[in-house]
Amino acid sequence: MKVLVAVKRVVDYNVKVRVKADNSGVDLANVKMSMNPFCEIAVEEAVRLKEKGVATEIVVVTIGPTTAQEQLRTALALGADRAVLVESAEELTSLAVAKLLKAVVDKEQPQLVILGKQAIDSDNNQTGQMLAALSGYPQGTFASRVEVTGDKVAVTREIDGGLQTVSLSLPAIVTTDLRLNEPRYASLPNIMKAKKKPLEVLTPDALGVSTASTNKTLKVEAPAARSAGIKVKSVAELVEKLKNEAKVI
Ligand code: AMP
Questions:
Q1: Each residue's pLDDT tens digit, 36-75
Q2: Which of 17, 150, 222, 241 has a CB 3.0–4.6 Å from the CB of 245, allowing a cystine?
Q3: Domains and CATH numbers, the chain
Q4: Peptide bond before 171: cis, by omega within 30 degrees of 0?
Q5: CA nearest neighbour of 45 among 36, 34, 54
Q6: Closest CA to 65 of 42, 36, 91, 40
Q7: Which Pfam families does the UniProt record give (predicted)?
Q8: Which residue has its alpha carbon closest to ligand 1 atom 17?
Q9: How confident is the model at residue 178 (pLDDT cuts 50, 70, 90)?
Q10: pTM of the entire structure?
Q11: DSSP class of 151
């Protein structure tokens, strides 16, 4: 079974994000970039499926600038067999990304596509769902457990108030939640081996996909700074302030 994993290059989760002075976006100059954490979980799940003998090949794909090859090499070091970069320096909408992923799905014909539930840069949480709609494949989002049996995959989903298990016919789309697994670290020998694994570079044009956007970002602003708090001397004073100043009780 071939598994396709979509990974996104994002600002590292440890970085304190700064907004550009002209409010046109987030400042990415000299900022550490990494693989989106939910995509690391997606790669890990594919590798575990291969270790169990369920998956035979793992193809990892990203859509982004030339530098996104770094994240593909990381995925190759973690156990993916080959990589595809759809090169685009533009800021793409989720729909454009989903259309490009659909073109890669058509080309690669995977049985299972695993994505992160959400990219931590724009928090869209929609690419997997859009890809499912475009490809006509069933979807199991927010997966905390994935079990492939024959031509079906059982996906346990983290939903409000509990867990829901759905059974999907393959080919299917799965998006990963935090508790699905704990990703491994790449070993030095595997990082070295990953340099020799195949990495194909495609373009949106070559895939016949227009990435023209109908969205325009008008302004990006940092959240308002929080004002300093105060210390109260007694519970009575606290209650008085909550009642009369904050008016919350
Ligand atoms: P989002 O819908 O943007 O929150 O992203 C959800 C998931 O879609 C990510 O975790 C990735 O698996 C996938 N994805 C989003 N953008 C890209 C991209 N540019 N390249 C590859 N995969 C992506």
A1: 999 999 999 999 999 999 999 999 999 999 999 999 999 9
A2: 241
A3: 1-243 (3.40.50.620)
A4: yes
A5: 54
A6: 91
A7: ETF
A8: 8
A9: very high
A10: 0.91
A11: T
